[in-house]
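We emphasize that the prediction below concerns an isolated chain of 288 residues; any contacts that depend on oligomerization or on bound cofactors are therefore not represented. The input was used exactly as deposited, without trimming of termini.
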Amino acid sequence: MGKKQVRQVRQQMRKVQPKQAASNAQGATRKQRERFVQAGGMLQGYSPNYVIRIGYISIAIAVVCVLIIAACLVFLPPIYGWPDAVAAAIAWVFPIALLASFVAPGFRLALKDRKAEPRLVQGQLVGASSVSTSMGLGMLMVQTRGGTEQFLVPPARLKQVPGNQVNVVLTVTPHLHHVKSVGVMGQRMVGRVEPPVPPVMRRLQLLPVLTPLALALGAVVGDDAVALIPLSPSAIHAVLAVVAGAVLGGAVYGVSFLLQRRYMEQVQALQAEGKAKDDRAEVEARPP
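Result of the prediction step, given as a token string:
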């Protein structure tokens, strides 16, 4: 092979490699998203009965939204015309879609977990914390034969978990991964000290809950507020109403995205600071 051909092959390799890396990263992100949805999404770790109650409440809210859509299509056309009535009704489809995307995966798994037998997970305790990114749940890390696994656990079940490395036995539902019980095998030699919870963690817990509510409220208020303003022609008025709802909902999503990124940066900074303190303490504890 001549030098010119070698040079061409190297240029082609440099062109192809970034595309492969990008595709691999996209595939990994897609798989993580699929695993997150398959495990219940935002409702992962909660008890099946609690998730089923949330599902029934969501169904009731969806029924109310359907009734409002029907009322818009029945009472608004004689006053504002059909384009404005349809535009006002479209806004109430958005809350139903949000409920379906956030609650439906977990609700389906909760119905399965209520009848399924829980599985036993045994391994060595790696770490535990009464706080996680999910509201009202702590975190437990266990080293099993398959590797390190993380479980979302109610804080009440973490009180008996010590600070030293012991073997633990967990009873976990197969779909939502709800930890029903935590058993400690061996002596509890060291008590687990819980550090104070930083305020940024509380805000990070609230963000996944408040974001869908703010999105639905922004879309409905922006759409219906413009749709009920007397303007003509009605077709252009309806388009403006839909655009207003979409813009307001997009603005809420953008603010939520920026807040989440800011909070995650603060959490990472706190983790780096805590790791640095632990390293300094370990160095000072070493004998000279």
